[in-house]
Amino acid sequence: MFAMREQWSSKIGFIMASAGAAIGLGAIWKFPYQAGLNGGAAFFLLFIVFTLVIGLSMLISEFVIGRGAKKEAITAYRTLAPNSHWKMIGQLGVLGCFLLLSFYSVVGGWVLIYSAQSVVGQVIKDGANYEQLFGAVTSSPVITLTGLALFLLINVVVISFGIKNGIEKANKYMMPLLFLFFIILVVRSLTLEGAAEGISFILNPDFSSLTGEGILYALGQSFFALAVGFSCMVTYSSYLGKEVSIPASASSVVVMNIFVSLLAGLAIFPAVFAFGIEPTEGPGLLFIILPTVFAQIPFGEVFFCLFLLLFLFATLTSSFSLLEIIVSAFTENGKRSRKKVTWISGLVMFIAGIPAALSSSILKDFMVFNKTVFDATDYLVSNILLPLGSLLIAMFIIHRMDKALVEEQFKMSNNLSNGWYRIWRVVMTWIVPVTILVVYVNLIGIWKL
């Protein structure tokens, strides 16, 4: 990543880097299949509400903590609340990032393998069965472990040398290109015969299909998609200059994230219904539907290859932030070699990711609470640890962090009235913790929504 005290070169650079960290598997891969499993438009509407009210407020909070402390996650809480146990929030973030990266890297490996196959023209072919292709990739221990190893290797190489201005500058070009290719895909998907049913599925809410567990997933998705709850954005914002408005920057990241999620839904679900595929396909939805849609476009293999490479870049920029918070936690005092810590972390991550990588093959029958290791880790991170981290961050910034410093960071370099600051404090004081606690109550079955 960036050396401590280094600042982003511009506001747009920080926004694009933060969007790159947030917009990855959460918006492009996970949102479509979660929406497909949990009622479509009703899930999407709830996701938007959670993201605008809770996710945005949480993102602002992490930005305030990071710029206020000018330190990485664990040290930030130790600096702002010395001689206390609040540093455990940063430690929870490191643990959460470790678990998240253990299955995130598996999917990143899938994207990497698909990208390599697409480059040599082995994905989109006449008469190809894309469901079988995805099954062949995920059910092969050799392929999944190779993808996992290569994906982590890229992360280790980059993080060992630090993410300098190359990543920030690349984000300025790659993220807009990702939007452009998504829009092309959406236009083609919407013109397919039978697409209207898919449009209705993602835009016409039917709340009768939404369960209490679906509400939990929508909340978890709002945290997952914005990379909040594990203090990743605390580390990113520690490099932020005083000239940048935190609320404005956070709002830009949130709007881009919601827009990408909408594009993902509009690209995939019209095609799902047009080709008679069940929207409840699950994690494989992206890898099965996108090739089907691109096959309908002239030069589809070229477009699909470019999209996969851009998607791979977005996935990597997200994983960089996850690995960086782990590495920075062990190199903050300068007593350990960054390269050595990074390579050791990469090796440990590979070992930790093996069970999730084999969840569709050798370990497919090994269940944890009736879920595969991959699904159980995803559930633990997205629906338990991320909300827990957010709850603790809300308590910290309202009840422990210096109020004058919080207000100073919130109002710095913007023309917002005191009313917006008070609204944000009300959300963080009451709405965020109450919402999370209600969802947790539903989770453990004390009160079914």
From TrEMBL:
Record-linked Pfam families: SNF
Main localization category: membrane
Record bears the keyword Lipoprotein: no
Alphabetized InterPro entries for the sequence: Na/ntran_symport (IPR000175), SNS_sf (IPR037272), YocR/YhdH-like (IPR047218)
Segments traversing the membrane: 12-29, 41-65, 92-113, 133-161, 173-195, 215-241, 253-277, 297-320, 341-359, 379-398, 419-447
Subcellular location: Membrane
Membrane topology type: Multi-pass membrane protein
Keywords: Membrane, Symport, Transmembrane, Transmembrane helix, Transport
GO cellular component: membrane
Molecular function as annotated in GO: symporter activity
Signal peptide interval: none
Record keyword GTP-binding present: no
Similarity comment: family membership: Belongs to the sodium:neurotransmitter symporter (SNF) (TC 2.A.22) family.
Protein's recorded name: Transporter
Source organism of the structure: Gracilibacillus dipsosauri
Taxon lineage: Bacteria, Bacillati, Bacillota, Bacilli, Bacillales
